[in-house]
């Protein structure tokens, strides 16, 4: 995946337009766009992604289709906290606790290396659970700017994780 900011911004703008044109709930646009970037960052395609915008558009189309299916079937998804409740506590395993602390320290270092506004947007979204609209109102910036900060933060975090693995 390219880390060229202009290519990323252009792909993000195209993705946002694509998701908006698909109809559905306007409040889901940011969620679908963010989930698309997250899935891209964790994807392991067999060949390099040559068309970033096209690849993201396909991910978003799949996400939109999945949401329509769930809505049509009346299926509710688990809340994020429900997933955490099913995870065993690392306190029972000292080695796991040390690994968790080490990972947390690495994440803090990655966050510390980000520009202040990007770091603040990330913390408000991921740690305080605020929506993009709430963050935008609080910081006096547009939702698109919030989205771009989150997108760049997730890319930096994924790149740091890739460096840790390799």
From TrEMBL:
Q: Which residue positions does the secretion signal occupy?
A: none
- Entry GO MF terms: DNA binding; sigma factor activity
Record's keyword terms, sorted: Sigma factor, Transcription, Transcription regulation
InterPro entries named among the record's database cross-references = RNA_pol_sigma-70-like (IPR039425), RNA_pol_sigma-70_dom (IPR014284), RNA_pol_sigma70_r2 (IPR007627), RNA_pol_sigma70_r4_t2 (IPR013249), RNA_pol_sigma_r2 (IPR013325), RNA_pol_sigma_r3/r4-like (IPR013324), WH-like_DNA-bd_sf (IPR036388)
> Which residues does the UniProt record annotate as the domain RNA polymerase sigma-70 region?
14-71
Instruction: Specify the RNA polymerase sigma factor 70 region 4 type domain's residue ranges.
Output: 106-154
Domain of life here?
A: Bacteria
Q: What is one process in the GO biological process aspect for this record?
A: DNA-templated transcription initiation
By sequence similarity, the record places it as follows: Belongs to the sigma-70 factor family. ECF subfamily.
What is the protein's given name?
Answer: Sigma-70 family RNA polymerase sigma factor
Taxon lineage:
Bacteria, Pseudomonadati, Pseudomonadota, Alphaproteobacteria, Sphingomonadales
């Amino acid at each position: 995946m390219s880390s060229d900011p202009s290519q990323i911004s252009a792909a993000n703008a195209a993705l946002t337009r694509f998701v908006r044109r698909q109809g559905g709930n306007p409040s889901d646009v940011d969620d679908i766009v963010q989930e698309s970037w997250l899935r891209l960052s964790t994807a392991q395609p067999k060949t390099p992604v040559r068309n970033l915008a096209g690849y993201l558009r396909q991910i978003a189309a799949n996400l939109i289709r999945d949401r329509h299916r769930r809505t049509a079937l009346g299926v509710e998804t688990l809340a994020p906290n429900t997933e955490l409740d099913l995870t065993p506590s690392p306190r029972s395993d000292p080695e796991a606790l040390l690994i968790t602390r080490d990972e947390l320290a690495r994440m803090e270092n990655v966050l510390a290396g980000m520009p202040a506004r990007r770091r603040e947007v990330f913390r408000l979204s991921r740690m305080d659970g605020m929506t993009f609209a709430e963050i935008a109102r609080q910081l006096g910036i547009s939702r698109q700017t919030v989205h771009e900060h989150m997108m760049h933060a997730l890319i930096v975090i994924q790149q740091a994780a890739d460096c840790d693995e390799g």
